[in-house]
């Protein structure tokens, strides 16, 4: 990242320290930043080389990435669904103030022509009974309402903004067993119009990040310390 940042501008020097590298920043801007290596950190060169090879192969041919859940399915599906339903009005109100929400309110046409009040959709896979739950964001009420579940391609054609994740992961997010950064890293997929920052995933960062929901962040740390997060699956 430092190399890319330095290639894009020449106003200042960006430093990207490696594990164990220590930077000494001088008081005067005219002096150079110096670095040395602490003796108690060693890099596994073989593992790093293998990881770089795997990374390069993925970039050359990423293929189809299959989402997998991170959290255990809730023991009480009905109670978990009640938690989700209780959260949706707040999510709808919070979304209104994000860049995603403001852009969604400002557009009036999409792929198939004029848009109705439903501008975004939240799709939760493997809900109670294994069903897909689909909730549309209504800009006239700033609330999410349940609608008939459709295929992903149909949803992408009908809604300018969408997010798809596992029901159990969303419940874990709302109950402090996962953080939004965990879910968005490999268990959520989104589509959107506009800039990358207009995606629903960035709206979720703003709505559920620890700066906005310190209560959930604190609860997640308590659960992590007690070993009760129990994430499953792979990224």
Summarize the structure.
With 235 residues, the chain is an alpha+beta fold. 40% of the residues lie in helices and 17% in strands.
SSE topology sketch:
Blueprint: H1 2-8, E1 21-24, E2 34-37, H2 45-60, H3 77-96, H4 99-106, E3 109-110, E4 113-114, E5 118-125, E6 133-138, E7 143-147, H5 152-158, E8 161-166, H6 167-174, H7 180-186, E9 188-191, H8 200-208, H9 214-226
Parallel strand pairs: 5-8
Antiparallel strand pairs: 1-2, 3-4, 5-6, 6-7, 8-9
Helix pairs in contact: 3-6
Characteristics:
235 residues; alpha+beta; two-stranded antiparallel ribbon; 9 strands
- Identify the strand order in the major beta sheet: 7-6-5-8-9
The helix fraction, in percent, is 40-55%
What distance separates the N and C termini?
Answer: 22 Å
Strand content: 15-25%
Mean pLDDT across all residues, rounded? 90
Outline the low-pLDDT stretches.
Answer: 230-235
Specify Rg, calculated over alpha carbons: 22 Å
**Structural class computed from helices and strand pairing:** alpha+beta
Principal-axes geometry comes out as globular
- Taken in chain order, the helices and strands follow as HEEHHHEEEEEHEHHEHH
């Amino acid at each position: 990242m430092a190399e890319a940042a330095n290639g894009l501008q020449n106003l200042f020097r960006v430093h990207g320290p490696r594990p164990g590298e220590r930077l000494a920043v001088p008081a005067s801007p005219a002096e150079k930043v110096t670095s040395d290596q602490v003796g108690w950190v060693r890099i596994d060169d073989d593992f790093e080389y293998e990881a770089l090879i795997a990374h390069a192969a993925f970039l050359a041919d990423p293929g189809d990435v299959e989402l997998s859940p991170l959290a255990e399915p809730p023991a009480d599906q009905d109670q978990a669904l009640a938690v989700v339903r209780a959260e949706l009005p707040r999510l709808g109100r919070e979304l209104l103030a994000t860049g995603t929400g403001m852009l969604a309110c400002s557009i009036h046409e999409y792929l198939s022509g004029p848009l109705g009040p439903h501008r975004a959709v939240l799709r939760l896979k493997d809900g109670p009974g294994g069903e897909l739950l689909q909730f549309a964001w209504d800009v006239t009420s700033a609330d999410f309402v349940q609608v008939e579940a459709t295929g992903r391609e149909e949803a992408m054609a009908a809604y300018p903004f969408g997010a798809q994740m596992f029901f159990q992961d969303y419940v874990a997010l709302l109950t402090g067993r996962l953080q939004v950064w965990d879910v968005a890293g490999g268990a959520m997929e989104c589509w959107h119009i506009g800039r990358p920052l207009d995606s629903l995933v960035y709206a979720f960062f703003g709505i559920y990040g620890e700066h906005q929901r310190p209560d959930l962040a604190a609860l997640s740390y308590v659960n992590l310390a007690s070993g009760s997060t129990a994430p499953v699956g792979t990224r």
